[in-house]
Amino acid sequence: DEYQWKGPFYFIQGADPQFGLMKAWAIGDINNGDDEWGEEIKLAEQAVQAINKLNPKPKFFVLCGDLIHGMPGTQWRKDQEQDLKNVLKNTDQDIPLVFVSGNHDIGNTPTRETIDNYCKNWGDDYFSFWVGGVFFLVLNSQLYFDSSKCPELKQVQDVWLNEQLAVAEKHKCKHIIVFQHIPLFLRKPDEDHDYFNLEKSVRREIMEKFHKAGIKAVFSGHYHRNAGGSYRGLEMVVSSAIGCQLGEDTHGLRVVVVTDEKIVHRYYSLNELSSQGIEKELLDMLAKQN
């Protein structure tokens, strides 16, 4: 049923609630300073309340990684995860939650064990789904960042991805959209590699594969700032955080409208989305039935 295009719809993208980072960042102790996350709880609650008020309802709410700050094996991780789950379970039951793994969720250099633990807690680290004729892919970008401790898992994801893109081609879907934590690039496809993007040769290979498959957009987080650019018709959208801000942006969420021809999105501060909802221009796009 979801293979068929039924007209415009929208979804909500959030990223990096990262329970624990605000205190760790404030005191300058990134590794051990994450023993409080009351501020993040309030922000995540505000995000959920804002989403629950929206009318019409979004088709789903995707969280693009770094759900919590505590790395695998660290002291506060379990409590952070439990507190996030307690907030998210108040999401309207008609709005499915989609989780994407980030580097804090499975480690900068993931292992089979860290990925298994993530999957037990949050669901698969990569998967695909259909909504209204649009094909969505959730990827584990950590396997592209550093798979040195689990090369076989990267290989399995690669094979799976090629199979999925073949499925998408066969079904003649309206659009293909990708979610992953680490952006391919922040602003320019040929920018230098650093902590916040993927290594250049890996990036080139993925961009080319995505371009050939006709993927329209990749939505990411990780940067804790808004950014983005494009490569041969593929849009790279980098959304700032629900949690700790590392730039000039506000705590927020991105509203993404999918129409027959295009994907239109706008980042809203939590305050703005809570008080005013979605602007008329985007609502008008949703109202246009094909």
Protein described:
- It is a single chain.
- The chain has 290 residues and is an alpha/beta fold.
- 36% of the residues lie in helices and 19% in strands.
- It contains ten helices and eleven strands.
- The chain has helices spanning 21-27, 38-53, 77-88, 103-106, 112-122, 142-145, 151-171, 200-213, 270-276, 280-287; strands at 9-14, 61-63, 97-99, 127-131, 134-138, 175-179, 217-220, 227-231, 234-238, 252-258, 263-269.
- The protein has a six-stranded mixed beta sheet, covered by helices on one side. Strands 3-2-1-10-11 form a five-stranded mixed beta sheet.
- The mean pLDDT is 97.
Main traits of this protein?
290 residues; alpha/beta; 6-stranded mixed sheet; 5-stranded mixed sheet; 10 helices; 11 strands; 36% helix; globular
Low-confidence stretches: none
Radius of gyration: 18 Å
What's the arrangement of strands in the largest beta sheet?
4-5-6-7-9-8
Average predicted local confidence, pLDDT? 97
User: How many distinct helices?
Assistant: 10
Helix content: 25-40%
Q: CA-to-CA gap between the ends? A: 17 Å
DSSP strand content: 15-25%
Order of helices and strands: EHHEHEHHEEHHEHEEEEEHH
- Class from secondary-structure proportions: alpha/beta
